[in-house]
Amino acid sequence: MIVYAQETHFDLSAALSDVNLKKTLSLENVEIPVSLLDMMQRWENWNKALPQIVEYLERGGNTYRLDANAIRWLPPLQYPNKLLCLGANYKDHNQEMGNTTRDKYPFTFLKPPTTTLVGAAETISLPEYAKMIDWEVELAVVIGKKTRNVHGDDVMKSIAGYSVFNDISARDWVPKEEQSFMGFDWIMLKGFDGSAPMGPYITPAEFVPDPQALNLSLTVNGEIKQNANTESMVFTVREIIEHLSRVLTLEPGDVIATGTPSGVGFGRKPPEFLHPGDRMVATIEGLGSLETTLR
User: Fold this and answer.
1) Is the separation of the CB atoms in 277 and 292 below 8 Å?
2) Residue 30 lies in a domain
3) Which among 218, 221, 216 is positioned nearest to 284, based on CA atoms?
4) How far apart are CA 274 and CA 266, in angstroms?
5) What is the pLDDT of residues 80-112, one digit of tens each?
6) Are residues 155 and 49 in the same domain?
7) 147 and 248 share a domain?
8) H/E/C letters for each residue in 86-150?
9) Which of 10, 45, 171, 249 is the right S-S partner for 57, CB 3.0 to 4.6 Å?
10) Residues 13 and 36 in one domain
């Protein structure tokens, strides 16, 4: 586990095994998490302790500092029980895709977490069965407590933090009009290995005052393809969680990708798609940048 503060990376896993740190912060009898997903099971307690831990690390000089260039970024969570993704959650994206905007409840699908999630600065293989590979920058929401039938102010209290997400898609499998009665084949379209880059960090919710006021963008080989703001979502983060918690139980560490704005390759005229060697960088204001290269 890594914690990032004051533009410095610290080895959190090593620090939590430090006898002096445990003694200083009265953590001697606390079960130390082995992963961030494990930490999410007791997120309310650990989130209160993290500022003190960071302060201790900063006072410790270079003891637990890491060279950012030497880090291989894994997915922030290995692995959430559920990776829930929203489709058609920006009106401008619906227009470019020729979709009708749903206004009663969100459109949601699942990705298999253990095989689709990859971390930042990762290189992924394009699926052999598809040629129309596309990008989608999205705001990811990470759940921090068991949540069911939540309403009002309690909705936002269920959030542990936020991250950058790229819902890579094989548009070959968008159904043609004559196939529409069969619906989408979500596995072929969005379930292939490596199709869910996420990271580089999870930013705690208290550092994101308003998730509906974040600029998000994506570049391909340095060229801006998407540039929007989360204020344009059809369903807000609050509404998404409220809806999903009526359908199923959200658990600590569950990830919800909240949909993408316009600017995807499939909606361009002429359409544009990704090729081996292409480099995508998805960025969300205050949450960092997520780089993915294709082979």
Assistant:
1) no
2) yes
3) 216
4) 10
5) 999 999 998 998 887 877 777 767 889 999 999
6) no
7) yes
8) EECCEHHHHHHHCCCCCCCCCEEEECCHHHHEECCCEEECCCCCCCCEECCEEEEEEECCCECCC
9) 10
10) yes
Residues 6+ apart with CB under 8 A from 286: 203, 207, 208, 214
pTM score above 0.90: yes
Pair 167, 136: CB distance under 8 Å: yes
For residue 171, the SS3 value is: helix
Any idea what the Cα angle at residue 175 is, between residues 170 and 180, rounded to 5°?
A: 155
Q: Which of 30-44, 49-63, 132-146 has the highest mean pLDDT?
A: 132-146
23 and 129: one domain? no
Tell me how far apart the alpha carbons of residues 99 and 252 are, in angstroms, rounded to a whole number.
33
- 186 and 91 inside one domain: yes
pLDDT at 176 over 70: no
**Residue 77 within a domain:** no
Residue identified by tokens 């069969």 is 182
If one counts the domains in the chain, the total is: 2
Which has the closest alpha carbon to 150: 142, 158, 162?
A: 158
